[in-house]
């Protein structure tokens, strides 16, 4: 067949770029005194960068970076509900969670898959208890979360990022929701696991092996959501949750400072506001 001049003709053969990358080695977590790949101790978390107001078209936005995990969130609304049958005197939250195609080691699809839909539901369940839904009747707030790079603990980072974005949008809340996660393997608990440390379904046959993610409202000392994977004993799950709660409390001032800096910047830019 003659070549189509309107198309850019690529090579007849191609090789996946992952063929030249170093394979990810699964880390065996066996000892409590394990030195992690990035040099952290088991109870240490990765450095966090948090900034608000990056998306000017949205009512509120936030960007969080935990080493290799990078998430951006935008909030739109409150705005009128489009469908009349969905009208309610209570406000509505909608969450849309999406991985970019280049965010993971294996290329993601453009359309939302089952894992992303599951994360959307978990994110919504974590944020709903913190929002004063009765303050905007017959209206809804849309939360869009996009993962730019996934290096583990992406759900916990998304909860924190979305909560700060809601506050940046001026949505009235009881408190911020801070997310944290832990990896459990035997007696070892790794806080804020990276991608190579996260729980895999391949290890599901092992006893007391899994992960837990917690969403906490620190000033109210209330847990808004808990999700876990794997087969975990209650004693170790309870201990991991306490570690996650402590981590959330430590991250709370970071979120408050990011919001305070954003508000100060807005006031300096326009004193009339």
Report on the architecture of this protein:
This protein has 273 residues and is an alpha+beta fold. It is built from 3 helices and 9 strands; from the N terminus they run E-E-E-E-H-E-H-E-E-E-E-H. Helices cover 24% and strands 27% of the residues. The protein has one domain (40-266): Ribosomal Protein S5, domain 2, CATH 3.30.230.70. A 5-stranded mixed β-sheet has the order 1-2-3-5-4. It is globular. The protein starts with 47 loop residues before the first strand and ends with a helix. Helix 1 links the parallel strand 4 (92-99) and strand 5 (139-149). Keywords: Cytoplasm, Exosome, Nucleus, RNA-binding, rRNA processing. This is Exosome complex component MTR3. One of its GO terms (molecular function) is RNA binding.
Largest sheet report: 5 strands, mixed
Which fold name fills CATH's third level, the topology?
A: Ribosomal Protein S5, domain 2
Strand content: 25-35%
CATH architecture: 2-Layer Sandwich
Strand order in space, largest sheet: 1-2-3-5-4
- Count of beta strands: 9
> Taking Cα atoms only, what radius of gyration do you get, to the nearest Å?
21 Å
What is the typical, i.e. mean, pLDDT? 84
| Total domains | 1
CATH superfamily: GHMP Kinase, N-terminal domain
The helix/strand class is alpha+beta
Shape: globular
Percent in helix:
10-25%
CATH class: Alpha Beta
Low-confidence stretches: none
Ends: how far apart?
66 Å
């Amino acid at each position: 067949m003659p070549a189509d001049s309107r198309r850019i003709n690529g090579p007849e053969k191609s090789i996946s770029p992952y063929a030249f990358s170093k394979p990810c080695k699964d880390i065996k977590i066996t000892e409590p005194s394990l030195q992690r790949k990035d040099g952290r101790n088991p109870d240490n978390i990765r450095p966090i960068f948090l900034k608000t107001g990056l998306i000017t078209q949205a009512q509120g936005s936030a960007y969080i970076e935990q080493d290799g995990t990078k998430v951006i969130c935008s909030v739109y609304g409150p705005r009128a509900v489009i469908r009349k049958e969905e009208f309610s005197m209570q406000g509505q939250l909608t969450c849309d969670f999406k991985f970019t195609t280049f965010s993971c080691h294996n290329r993601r699809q453009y359309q939302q898959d089952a894992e992303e839909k599951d994360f959307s539901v978990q994110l919504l369940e974590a944020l709903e208890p913190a929002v004063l839904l009765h303050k905007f009747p017959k209206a809804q707030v849309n939360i869009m979360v996009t993962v730019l790079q996934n290096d583990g603990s992406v759900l916990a980072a998304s909860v924190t990022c979305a909560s700060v974005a809601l506050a940046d949008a001026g949505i009235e809340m009881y408190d911020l929701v801070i997310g944290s996660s832990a990896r459990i393997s035997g007696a070892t608990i790794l806080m804020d696991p990276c991608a190579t440390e996260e729980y895999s379904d391949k290890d599901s046959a092992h006893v007391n092996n899994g992960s837990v993610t917690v969403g906490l409202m620190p000033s109210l000392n209330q847990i808004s959501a808990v999700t876990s994977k794997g087969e975990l004993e209650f004693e170790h799950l309870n201990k991991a949750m306490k570690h996650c709660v402590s981590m959330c409390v430590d991250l709370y001032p970071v979120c408050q400072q990011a919001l305070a800096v954003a508000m100060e910047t807005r006031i300096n830019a326009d004193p009339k506001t």
